[in-house]
Amino acid sequence: MSADTLSRTLAASELETLVGTEVGVSSWYLIDQARIDAFAEVTQDHQFIHVDPERAAETPFEGTIAHGFLTLSLLSAMGVEAQPKIKGATMGINYGFDKVRFLAPVKVGSRVRGRFVLARLSRPKPQEVDIVWQSTVEIENGKRPALVAEWLNRFYLEGEADKSC
Q1: Superkingdom of this entry's organism (predicted)?
Q2: Which domains does the chain have, with CATH numbers?
């Protein structure tokens, strides 16, 4: 799939033809200590392996690591950057995850990026499109990905969207 194709806005029927295809790869995101500390502050997760470089240096990680949920939360930014847009979509929401696995720690100073395979697409209602993305967050020069997830999104198309969500 070319970058030109992915930068386009596609009708749901066009997008459906891409099921099973990797449709986008994001740019690299630096996971520095400032980002980790900011996430710790927002989530109140101050476990030493994330925020105390001296103590974390004494662990098998040999330094601080990103919170798994920090890495997971970057899927939103990565997805906006890498996934094709849907023609007529007025908004999209995170609908959930069917599966999330954290496979490798993201050490401070690492860079990560997202890869997205369009796993499934369905139309529960005429103005709704549900998409399941097989999402992988890679660690630059890593042997294993940081995480893999089946990420569910719902998009509402022009017209009256169901307001019950």
Answers
A1: Bacteria
A2: 3-29+67-157 (3.10.129.10)
